[in-house]
Amino acid sequence: MRIIGTGSSLPKKVVTNDMLSEFLDTSDEWIVPRTGIRSRHVISDEELEDLAADAAAKALAASGLKTSDIDYFICSNVVNEYLTPGLSCIIGYKLGLTCPCVDINCACPGFIYALDIVEARWKAGKLHNALIVCAEEPSRMTSWQDRSTCVLFGDGAGAVVLTDGDNIRGINLHAEPSPDKIWQKRILEPTPYITKEEVSVPLQMKGRDVFRFAVNASTTQVEALLSECGMTKDDVTYYMVHQANARIIDSIKQYLAEPEEKFPSNIADHGNSSSASCTILLDETNRKGLLKKGDILVFSAFGAGLLSAAAVLEW
Ligand code: UT7
Questions:
Q1: Measured in angstroms, how far is the CA atom of residue 39 from the centroid of ligand 1?
Q2: What does each of the 315 residues of the chain score in pLDDT, given as a tens digit?
């Protein structure tokens, strides 16, 4: 497949580190050196599905396709207000889609997992045009009393439209299932028969374990995938790395021994927007006019699961 349109949409409320320190025992001096984050967009009166539909409409407009041309839609999302129907159906209704609407919850690498599915279906001859939307509101998952998590995240949506083409050079997916590293639980409706104890717990994260996993998984996968694609680091124009933490991105950069200018970044004013992160970064880089036909983009993302993924794409 080939990406022919990108779009993104952000909540209007911008929360700076200084605003957080008004109600949390934290500071810009702590947050910036450890994460690279200065501010983040946070949902206030918006609905996530409206941001998602807006990002999708921008990607469709850029692609030149109509909603009726899309024959497969995947939404990547971790948490939203609806347990059912899937967020893809809610967004699909807003857009007027009539194709299959599919949801995946593959955490931060969700965009690459979605790419893998559309590419496999395309290779099987089952679609020509696909829409992927990554829509996330992690600000509603964390406790805003927990300074170790809530400062890290921001909300938003990103989208891509793909059509026939052979620009996806390779995809590498990886899992190390360990549900105690990043997790959140909510209580379901009670029944007369539930005897087990149930608790609702906001997002929990073993930050240092996740940091190690992220750097190790990303560098291993990127090197393996480039070699599988018959490429070297010299062929790479940009590394589109999941914007989780500037220190994670710096460690990956150092390990790969690649220069700063190959790593577009928006972590400073977005924070970690889970699976939306790579698609927002792609759209912003694209709209700045930085991408040229033939550029090689390496995507790398990692997160809850633990899951990670890498993809090599020719622009
Ligand atoms: O999509 C993947 C998502 N995951 C990530 O990106 C997370 C990866 N991990 C990290 O980025 C880092 O582990 C963090 C930035 C989350 C934390 O940095 P750290 O250097 O690993 O700090 P720590 O958790 O070990 O905490 C050190 C101290 C603690 O205080 P004490 O116990 O030493 O007194 C924390 O309570 O820093 C304290 N602390 C804070 N202080 C001020 C934790 N968060 C904050 C905060 N402001 N926001």
A1: 17
A2: 999 999 999 999 999 999 999 999 999 999 999 999 999 999 999 999 999 999 999 999 999 999 999 999 999 999 999 999 999 999 999 999 999 999 999 999 999 999 999 999 999 999 999 999 999 999 999 999 999 999 999 999 999 999 999 999 999 999 999 999 999 999 999 999 999 999 999 999 999 999 999 999 999 999 999 999 999 999 999 999 999 999 999 999 999 999 999 999 999 999 999 999 999 999 999 999 999 999 999 999 999 999 999 999 999
Closest by Cα among 1, 17, 24, 16 to 74: 1
300 Cβ closer than 6 Å to some ligand 1 atom: no
Query: Identical fold at 2-166 and 171-314?
Result: yes
What's the CATH number for 2-166? 3.40.47.10
Report which protein residue has its CA nearest ligand 1's atom 29.
148
How far, in Å, from the CA of 205 to the mean position of ligand 1? 10
What is the architecture of the domain spanning 171-314? 3-Layer(aba) Sandwich (3.40)
